[in-house]
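in:
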């Protein structure tokens, strides 16, 4: 069966950069840097990198960064920003559900981007691909610390305003047994709609599912954090976490 074409800010990637730039990118980079330096990881893969704001900061610290994404416009914006900032980040158009790029010391996927893999078979082949692209003992960091709802089973709307740019997100549960939801985003600049998208997402990855995906694809779970401040205390009533996996 042919895959439906996935698009993400294809015409106006700057509105993604601006509209979702409110995140604590520097704290994310401090977190990643601490784990990578402790584990002597140098060659790093940023999965679903977009314009790779974190990868560019890591490259400034001396890491060898490659990024993969499906959005040509965000990859192009990432290349432009990297050249403006005089850092070297390699950007590749690749589908994270099945890819081959080489052997890395570590990989990471931020901003809950793994939830784009809402079909269980894609999620499984993603874990297999990441494992194949890591050296033995390599790390995979999965950030699921930022989810777009209060309860995964209830609709939620978020609005974010930055200057003349308004970003609106609508999350709504779709197929609860399969944990899928619909995610709509709209960017309005100066009163005009400049980007509008709707796609399916996985609601979250329950810890038992993470364990089974990890163990069946050759990983072990090394650590779980609740946020980028190295807080280990997971809230058992919440689905958010950051997982650090290690290739066995
Ligand atoms: C929420 S954005 C995160 C971008 C970036 N990591 C950041 O922190 O700003 C999610 C990204 O996942 C990408 N994406 C979605 N499905 C993908 C797939 N199957 N393979 C590769 N990238 C994908 C989108 O194009 C988008 O850039």
């Amino acid at each position: 069966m042919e895959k439906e074409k996935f698009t993400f800010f294809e015409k106006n990637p700057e509105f993604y950069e601006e509209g979702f730039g409110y995140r604590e990118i520097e704290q994310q980079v401090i977190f990643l840097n601490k784990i990578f330096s402790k584990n002597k990881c140098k060659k790093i893969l940023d999965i679903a990198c977009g314009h790779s704001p974190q990868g560019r900061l890591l490259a400034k610290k001396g890491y060898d960064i490659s990024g993969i994404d499906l959005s040509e416009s965000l990859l192009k914006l990432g290349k432009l920003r990297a050249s403006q900032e005089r850092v070297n980040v390699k950007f590749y158009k690749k589908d994270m559900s099945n890819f081959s790029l080489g052997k890395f010391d570590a990989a990471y996927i931020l901003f809950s981007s793994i939830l784009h893999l809402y079909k269980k078979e894609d999620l499984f082949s993603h874990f297999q691909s990441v494992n194949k692209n890591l050296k033995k003992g390599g790390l995979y960091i999965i950030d699921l610390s930022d989810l777009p709802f209060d309860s995964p089973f209830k609709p939620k709307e978020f609005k974010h305003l930055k200057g003349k740019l308004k970003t609106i997100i609508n999350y709504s549960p779709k197929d609860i047994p399969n944990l899928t939801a619909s995610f709509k985003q709209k960017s309005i600049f100066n009163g005009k709609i400049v980007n509008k998208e709707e796609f399916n997402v996985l609601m979250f990855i329950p810890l038992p599912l993470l364990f089974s995906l990890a163990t069946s694809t050759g990983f072990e779970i090394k650590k779980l954090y609740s946020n980028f401040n190295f807080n280990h205390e997971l809230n058992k009533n919440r689905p958010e976490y950051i997982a650090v996996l290690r290739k066995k």
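note: Residues 13-147+204-247 form a domain with the Rossmann fold fold (CATH 3.40.50.150).
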